[in-house]
Write a structure and sequence with these properties.
This protein has 210 residues and is α+β, with helices and mostly antiparallel strands. The protein has three domains: 30 residues; 91 residues, Jelly Rolls, CATH 2.60.120; 71 residues, no CATH class. Helices cover 18% and strands 40% of the residues. It is built from two helices and 15 strands. Strands 2-7-4-5-11-10 form a six-stranded antiparallel beta sheet, with no helix packed on it. Strands 1-8-3-6 form a four-stranded antiparallel beta sheet, with no helix packed on it. It has a three-stranded mixed beta sheet with strand order 12-9-15.
Length: 210
């Protein structure tokens, strides 16, 4: 009888634990944003935040698609979104110390952060993408391209402050009217004349103003 009673109680406990776990998963799936996860990345290393699966991700997103909000509090990093195989870069940009940026991560994509400037510390949290309101400001997706051999630190007020690596291409989506600045001066203002998917050569814009 003792063994039967123990099994019964154990079954009740196990069912309770499973139920609690299911409730926690459901709550995470329904949350609009997650608490920040803080990660230290040694210089020269790449950290897989989400997209690899259990045992591989250091900050797995509980829902997809998601907007990953990354804040850097150490040396420079490079943020990149790769395809499921980790072979093709879909989006990417540099982020300096105390920089913060948001990048979209969809189902079947991997989000990685590379420590390119030294040992660093980041914090990442996930938000559900906000649906566009009917009267939302139009936007366009295009690429910021650095055709030169040195990095370019840009200012995109209200959006991000990306650091474009040499010979790189970074995908962005910006609203019409958004200014792109370099050293305080306006390089470019996004408008309806910019075709989706355009490679905007930032180095050429800087040279044109010099």
């Amino acid at each position: 009888m003792g063994e039967l009673r123990f099994d019964y109680q154990g079954s009740v406990v196990m069912r309770t634990m499973i139920l609690l776990a299911a409730m926690m998963v459901a709550l995470g799936a329904n949350a609009q944003e997650t608490e920040p996860v803080r990660i230290e990345i040694p210089w020269g290393n790449s950290w897989l935040l989400t997209g690899g699966g259990p045992g591989q991700d250091d900050a797995p997103a509980p829902f997809l698609p998601a907007d990953a909000v990354i804040r850097n509090s150490g040396n420079a990093v490079y943020v990149r979104v790769m395809d499921a195989a980790g072979m093709i870069q879909l989006r990417g940009f540099g982020l300096d110390d105390r920089g913060e940026a948001t990048v979209r991560v969809d189902e079947g994509e991997r989000l990685l952060v590379d420590a390119v400037g030294g040992d660093t510390r980041i914090a990442v949290r996930y938000e559900r993408p906000k649906p566009e309101a009917p009267d939302a400001v139009p936007s366009v997706a295009f690429n910021l391209m650095n055709s030169g051999l040195t990095s370019i630190a840009l200012e995109i007020p209200g959006a991000m402050n990306p650091n474009l690596s040499p010979k790189s291409r970074s995908a962005v989506r910006l609203d019409y009217g958004q200014e792109i600045r370099f050293k305080g001066r306006v390089l470019f203002t996004v408008g309806p004349d910019l075709e989706p998917g355009t490679d905007l050569d930032v180095r050429a814009l800087i040279r044109a103003q010099d």
